[in-house]
Design goal:
154 residues, 2 domains, 8 helices, 79% helix
Length: 154
């Protein structure tokens, strides 16, 4: 993804999420505290201790500021958290992996779902049984179909 598109996407995602959670000052504050709680739990299990300490310092800093901050400052703090998550996601996005993954993942899922015996496995490799034959989609399928026709957001 070219840098201009990436930056535009980041700005849009951060604004959408911020507008969703920061409309009401109480929701904004609660979103920050929930984020801090969940991130602290995640960091307890992090195997990379140096990275975990750095992340923990960030969230401890946010925590101390939110305790003293105004609703306007809470909005800024929440935006920092959202920006951090968005940067992490986009920073690890690799178009080559994204293009290559379906070629590996779908056949692997086919094998997984069809591993009821050697004959079913042979059918999978011959292409007579596909993943789509094994899945059942429930829920808001009309909405899902509409969204899938829109294509990617960028």
């Amino acid at each position: 993804m070219d840098p201009a598109k990436k930056e535009k996407l980041l700005v849009e995602v951060v604004e959408r999420v911020l507008n969703r959670w920061a409309k009401d000052p109480a929701n904004c504050e609660q979103a920050i505290f929930d984020t801090i709680y969940e991130e602290r739990r995640r960091l307890e299990k992090e195997s990379k201790k140096r990275l975990a300490r750095k992340e923990l310092r960030f969230y401890n800093n946010i925590y101390s500021k939110v305790l003293k901050g105004s609703p306007h400052e809470h909005r800024i703090l929440l935006k920092q958290c959202i920006q951090r998550f968005a940067d992490e996601i986009v920073g690890h996005f690799d178009p080559i992996v994204h293009a290559f993954a379906p070629r590996i993942v779908l056949p692997s899922l086919n094998i997984l779902f069809n591993s009821g015996g050697p004959w079913r496995l042979i059918e999978t490799f011959q292409g007579s049984r596909t993943l789509i034959d094994q899945l059942e989609v429930n829920g808001e399928t009309r909405t899902l179909k509409k969204v899938s026709k829109l294509g990617p957001p960028f």
